[in-house]
Design brief:
single chain; 226 residues; mainly alpha; 11 helices; 61% helix; globular; binds zinc ion
């Protein structure tokens, strides 16, 4: 049964554009393990292809009517596979990893980014009046978290200064939020950095520090449930 189900997935989902590769006899000699492995490989390949195609189609279009969702940012910033994710997973605690993923993907409990229970998109804090609670508001604006934000930004500034030699005060929101969510993304892909183990490790650890600072901010504000 499991073999039949696997074959079904194999045929209908990811390999829809590929003709059946094996003859009946070959199929009978095909082990479960091999099917699973091949499925996983082709599934990953298919997903990656679709994502690349989607990004290519979307880029450059509808610049004016840009969606506020962070998924749009992932497309604009051309965020794809990166070797640093594996390192992050080994260095961050599970709850930290969850927070980072939620903020990156835009699937989180902020009122303007919630995917269900759309009562209101506005910030719950009275001082904020009728301001929308999206990521920008939460990290950059919300008046309820001024103190936590100062601590967060001061620590962030030291790292940014060390890497780029300028203060975060001199960059705009877009750059800052990209730095917070995907710290040093491009720098880590630099050829010289990839060859230099010590330099790469330094950047990777700075990346982890930034992500941990973000998690501290989230924890201090108490806005997300652990
Ligand atoms: Zn607010």
């Amino acid at each position: 049964m499991a073999k039949a189900a696997m074959f079904d997935i194999y045929q209908t989902r990811q390999w829809k554009e590929v003709e059946k590769k094996c003859t009946k006899q070959e199929w009978e000699n095909y082990g479960m393990k091999a099917i699973k492995k091949e499925n996983r490989r082709s599934g990953l390949y298919g997903t990656l292809n679709e994502w690349t195609r989607y990004k290519r189609d979307r880029r450059g279009k509808k610049k004016g009517a840009r969606s506020q969702s962070l998924t749009q940012n992932l497309i604009d910033w051309d965020i794809g596979y990166h070797y640093a994710y594996k390192y992050e997973m080994s260095k961050l605690l599970r709850w930290q990893w969850c927070i980072v993923t939620q903020l990156r993907s835009g699937h989180n409990c902020l009122n303007a980014q919630k995917k269900y229970g759309h009562d209101s998109t506005l910030c719950d804090q009275e001082v904020c009046g009728d301001l929308k609670e999206d990521l920008r508001h939460y990290v950059y604006v919300c008046m309820a978290y001024g103190q936590q934000r100062n601590t967060f930004f001061d620590a962030l500034d030291l790292i940014y200064m060390d890497v780029y030699g300028i203060s975060i005060d001199s960059i705009d929101y877009e750059e800052l939020i990209q730095f917070i969510l995907f710290p040093l993304q491009e720098d880590l892909l630099d050829k010289d950095i990839r060859r230099d183990t010590a330099a790469r490790l330094k950047l990777l650890n700075q990346r982890i520090t930034v992500l941990k600072l973000l998690c501290c901010y989230v924890e201090d504000t108490g806005r997300f449930k652990k």
